[in-house]
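Troubleshooting log. The previous structure file for this entry was overwritten by mistake, so regenerating from the original sequence record. Sequence copied from the archived sheet and checked twice against the printout by T.R.
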Amino acid sequence: MSTIKITSVVEKDQKGDFLLKWEVSPDHEGNMEIYSSLTDSSLASFTPLASKKVADQVLRVTPTGSGLREFFMLRTAGVYSGVVANRFIEMNKIKNFRDIGGYFTSDNRQIKWGQIYRSANLSDATLYDQEKIRRLNIKTIIDFRSEKAAKKYPLLLHPSIRKISLPITPMDAEKLDEQLKNEQFDRSDAIRYVQESYVDIVENYKEQFGELFDILTNDSNYPILLSESLGKDGVGLASYFILHILGVPHSTLEEDYMLSNREIDPAKAKIDAKNLSEPLQEAVTAMLSVNAAYLNYVIDHITQKYGSVDSYLETELRVTSGKRNLLRKYLLYQF
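Regenerated output below.
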């Protein structure tokens, strides 16, 4: 059995071309065949798009079709990579819009692309953004914003898309606003606030998460988009739980969680940081960013109180073995 492993990633550059990059371990001389398709099924049955030397490690691909998504697979020495696609979807006004597919589980299965997306606030979506969402065939949007935010900033999306509100309200938001106004808040306070707010979410919003998994175990709801104001807290925890159930290791889950920092610019947030004191600017930055310490704090809390994340999911969120099997059926490639 071959020990060759192909690791690959694809991103879109400023011109809109796909940049496909790969590494092979251990080092291997030879050619890399690249397969491409507008869908992620039966990629390897197509004629290769190109053949490059393994040592080249990169290929620029001009998009075909709409240019929104393309899927790739690589092959060398008889070994295939997994399916590769661009994780982030470029939008005009919607931040942190990305696909949670493509990751590998501990038993080397791969999560399907194009089934679950996540994003920040959708209420500012332009017509361009709305058209992209339509072309991604998204059928269901799970809105984690508070009832107040959802009412004030409604989602103006195609009526065919089902919108489900599962509100998660920030912990002590009014008290926090008062502390910010009085500048009685610094970075260490912000870190503690976010950590405790994550604990508040997993303890006081179990019904919302439980309903989410009921939705996820109905295959007619896919593809699904998880959304909230910044797309990093409730959405981040929901994504963690989903990928954990599918068998993705914690180290990969942490990397996925941290990707939000690529898309969130605290300086452009609604709070005008320039008018704040330096300690308060640092506090705001800490709250609007993600930090592995936030995620690990709440996972430690779950483990200490419930024994394990799996136990929490089963006893508190009603994620039975039957639901786990359905999620693996719907969300893992079968090859």
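The first strand starts at residue 5 and ends at 12. Archived copy saved in two places this time.
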